[in-house]
């Protein structure tokens, strides 16, 4: 016992000192673990938990926090997203692509919108194949389209030829001068579409021109083709001089209308405005105007008959050797050069009547 107490290398610690030392070691371990965790996870959203929470609870909280986060990938400014395309214009998606025609076609003569010009020419070509005897030119359809709707509102159609806004004429109830009274259903009719068809006429002549399976008066291709079919029904040589005005009157029974259409058709045919102004549309002629026009016509007729009865000075019986030039084709007040209308034959020159000389008796040819 004495020897053990006298050993110089033994350190004697009291119970209080041992408890203080154990507490200091525990606190140091906790500080060290917090420093390591802060270096490993620099996220500002890490939890600050009290020292009394167990290690298992701390691990569960951190796992739940990591699972709640959603990773996000932000593309750089020059990156193109795969499978993404900007939305197209609504009118391009209105129908199948096979019925679509480019809307940026070049304009035609005197500013005819390109897609409307395409409709006029396609209609004339198809009508010519079906009724070649009619010989309806595209510029006649253009003249009608110009008067009826200003070429569908200056080409206000989509890539399929459908008018962007409905084109409707006035109500045909007789309230406007010159308009007929036409019933339709429980009310009065209105002309429809760029070629201004009456509903009953469209029911009889409306046709599908663009192959989409429906005939639509508000489609420029359907409307122009249907107008050509209607104009050529039972007609031969539409633009022949004696019949052209009457043929146009079948579309609208107004002489000013027919003269206006023919004048514009002539201008579109050559692509140049005439030096004389194109007659503008006017209101329906009154009874007084009709009587005055009839009197003028009768006076001209009487004057021609008087001239035919007046004896004329006999001309030389020598036939002319020069070939007469074919007269131009006139549309209303404007004349076109010959051969411009498709299928139009050149008019035959008028033969001058000459009195043949009587053969002498010595040169008479015996009858056989």
TrEMBL record:
One Pfam family name is SLT_2
Q: Which InterPro entries match?
A: Lysozyme-like_dom_sf (IPR023346), MltB-like (IPR043426), SLT_2 (IPR031304), TAT_signal (IPR006311)
Record domain Transglycosylase SLT: where: 188-231
Region described as Disordered: spans on this chain: 277-368
> Which Gene3D superfamilies does this UniProt record tie to the protein?
1.10.530.10
Q: Where is the composition biased (Basic and acidic residues)?
A: 285-307
Q: Where is the composition biased (Low complexity)?
A: 308-323, 352-368
Output the PANTHER family linked to this UniProt entry: LYTIC MUREIN TRANSGLYCOSYLASE, MEMBRANE-BOUND LYTIC MUREIN TRANSGLYCOSYLASE B
Protein name according to UniProt: Lytic transglycosylase domain-containing protein
Q: Which organism is this protein's natural source?
A: Gordonia hydrophobica
């Amino acid at each position: 016992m004495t020897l053990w107490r006298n050993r110089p290398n033994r350190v004697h610690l009291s119970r209080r000192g041992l408890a203080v030392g154990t507490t200091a070691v525990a606190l140091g371990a906790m500080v060290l673990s917090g420093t390591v965790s802060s270096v490993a996870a620099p996220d500002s959203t890490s939890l600050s938990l009290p020292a009394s929470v167990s290690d298992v609870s701390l691990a569960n909280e951190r796992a739940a926090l990591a699972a709640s986060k959603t990773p996000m990938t932000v593309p750089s400014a020059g990156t193109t997203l795969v499978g993404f395309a900007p939305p197209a214009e609504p009118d391009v998606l209105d129908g199948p692509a096979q019925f679509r025609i480019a809307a940026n076609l070049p304009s035609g003569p005197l500013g005819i919108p390109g897609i409307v010009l395409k409709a006029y020419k396609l209609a004339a070509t198809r009508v010519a194949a079906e009724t070649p005897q009619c010989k309806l030119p595209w510029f006649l359809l253009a003249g009608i389209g110009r008067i009826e709707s200003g070429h569908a509102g200056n080409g206000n159609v989509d890539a399929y030829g459908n008018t962007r806004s409905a084109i409707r004429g006035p109500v045909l109830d007789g309230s406007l001068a010159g308009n007929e009274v036409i019933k339709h259903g429980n009310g009065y009719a209105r002309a429809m579409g760029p070629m201004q068809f009456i509903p009953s006429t469209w029911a009889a002549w409306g046709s599908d021109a663009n192959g989409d399976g429906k005939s639509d008066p508000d489609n420029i291709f359907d409307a122009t083709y249907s107008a050509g079919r209607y104009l050529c029904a039972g007609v031969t040589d539409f633009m022949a001089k004696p019949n052209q005005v009457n043929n146009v009157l079948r579309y609208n029974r107004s002489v000013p209308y027919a003269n206006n259409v023919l004048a514009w058709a002539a201008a579109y045919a050559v692509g140049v405005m005439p030096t004389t102004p194109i007659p503008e549309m006017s209101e329906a002629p009154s009874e007084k105007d009709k009587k005055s026009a009839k009197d003028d016509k009768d006076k001209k007729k009487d004057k021609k008959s008087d001239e035919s009865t007046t004896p004329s000075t006999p001309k030389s019986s020598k036939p002319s050797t020069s070939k007469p030039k074919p007269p131009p084709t006139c549309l209303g007040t404007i004349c076109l050069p010959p051969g411009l209308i498709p299928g139009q034959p050149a008019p035959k020159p008028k033969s001058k009547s000459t009195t043949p000389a009587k053969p002498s008796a010595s040169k008479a040819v015996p009858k056989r």
